[in-house]
Design a protein that fits this description.
alpha+beta, 447 residues, 7-stranded antiparallel β-sheet, globular, 35% helix, 21% strand
Length: 447
């Protein structure tokens, strides 16, 4: 494999033993391939020897998807980081899995194009990880998620076989949708080594607003009103009072501490239409109880508004050392009901839960702020998480909008899909990975 591509010292192994969760697992070795051929060689050997393989990008996942199992090979794909092509005529990019998401954003925009998926970790996370988890982000409301931009993939299967699926066309009705099967599969079906991604024209301009609400229910109702008026913002984010206090304590940027919620709303498109859209959104927010609406007048003001939202994850850990980040998602009309349910669950279990997220598409991120060294608090947190998931499902929602199932949500998968649904997924897994070496334990649980 070459010098520096195989890591086995205790210090190196520790660096690969965790992801963005509080979970931990020690691998036996880390391999850093640079080519598809090297990935295939590792998987062929691992399959023959029955060694678990855990594919990994930047390790920013929030469901335990990249946490190793004992005796496993961690396959670190960050060395495969080339942007192979930006095709302005066909509006697509061809990239390797280790390309950092924000780097692709910049490359696309420098060519006058736009790659919309923008997870909060975009300055660190990789395209391969985004594909594995079907990452979304604030722009998902208007533009969709990673799945909507993957045209084709090169994937190495468990036995080392290389499969090419999809292609460079927007339309493709040839056979089964293998591309869609691998997107969101969390590295349990194959290892992505190349991706063809759809790009779109770059919006002419953007405008950002912040609306402050005394009651979080008013903010939730304003969301419904804005979308019901026919306006489709490029982003519509919510932060509750717990989140606001954490971010203000972290950044000291003058966020309001006298409100229960703020909405951060972005519209984009032709400059001529944006001022009218912003005016309508501001009026609707005020009609539904906003005490203040601030419209960014400069790029600097816009960046400052988004800085608060981007800082949420590091800010909330000031309350307690352990952050359990969930992403229960419901139809957007049920966002007010889910917020009420989460608030009640927090009171019931005497927990601090920060609520923020992509409220415009129903994707809330209730973050339970706990101390993993406190057994009683962790037991209450586990009970609260189960109730949050049940509440989301009862409202017609799903366990995950963008974080994936991983290890943390695996025990609840059957609540959503039932026994036959999970059994069908297992059959797909067993067909493509008959020896169960690819990211074992993820999605279905077990070791």
């Amino acid at each position: 494999m070459g010098h520096g591509k195989v890591l086995s010292s205790p210090e190196d192994l520790f660096c690969y033993s965790y992801d963005g969760t509080f979970l931990y697992g020690a691998p036996a070795v880390v391999v850093r391939p640079a080519t598809t051929r090297e990935v295939a060689a590792v998987l062929k050997l691992a399959s023959a020897e029955g060694i678990p393989v855990v594919p990994r990008g930047a390790g920013t996942g929030l469901s335990g998807g990249a946490v190793p199992v004992e005796g496993s090979i961690v396959l670190d794909l960050t060395a495969m980081d080339r942007i192979l092509e930006i095709d302005t005529a066909d509006m697509l990019a061809v990239v390797e899995p280790g390309v950092v998401t924000a780097r692709l954003h910049r490359a696309a925009e420098s060519a006058g194009l736009f790659y919309p998926p923008d997870p909060s970790s975009s300055n660190v996370s990789t395209i391969g990880g985004n594909i594995a988890e079907c990452a979304g982000g604030p722009r998902g409301l208007k533009y969709g998620v990673t799945r909507d931009y993957v045209l084709g993939l090169e994937v190495v299967l468990a036995g080392g076989e290389v499969v090419v699926c999809g292609g460079r066309t927007v339309k493709n009705a040839s056979g089964y949708d293998l591309t869609g099967l691998f997107v969101g599969s969390e590295g349990t079906l194959g290892v992505v080594t190349r991706a063809v991604l759809r790009l779109i024209p770059r919006p002419e301009t953007r405008q950002t607003l912040r609306a402050d609400f005394k009651a979080i229910e008013q903010a939730a109702e304003a969301i419904t009103a804005v979308l019901g008026a026919g306006v489709v913002p490029s982003a519509l984010e919510i932060m509750d009072d717990v989140t606001i206090r954490c971010v203000e304590n972290y950044l000291r940027i003058g966020l309001p501490l006298d409100v229960e919620a703020i909405l951060l709303i972005e519209v984009d498109g032709p400059a001529a239409a944006l001022s009218e859209q912003a005016r309508l959104i501001a009026a609707l927010c005020e009609e539904h109880g906003a005490v203040r609406v601030r419209v960014a007048q400069t790029k600097e003001e816009e960046a400052e508004l988004w800085r608060a939202r981007k800082a949420v994850s590091p800010a909330v850990v000031q309350v307690k050392p352990t952050k359990i980040s969930e992403d229960a998602t419901v139809p957007r009309s049920r966002v007010p009901a889910l917020i009420r349910a989460i608030k009640e669950i927090a009171r019931k279990y005497r927990l601090t839960i920060a609520i923020f997220g992509h409220a415009g598409d129903g994707n809330l991120h209730p973050n339970l702020l706990v101390d993993k060294s406190d057994p009683d608090e962790m037991a209450r947190a586990e009970a609260a998480i189960e109730e949050i998931f049940k509440a989301a499902l009862a409202l017609g929602g799903t366990l995950s909008g963008e974080h994936g199932i991983g290890l943390l949500k695996a025990p609840f998968l059957e609540l959503e899909y039932g026994g036959p649904g999970v059994a069908t997924m297992r059959k797909i897994k067993e067909t493509l990975d008959p020896y169960g070496i690819l990211n074992p334990g993820k999605i279905f649980g077990g070791s």
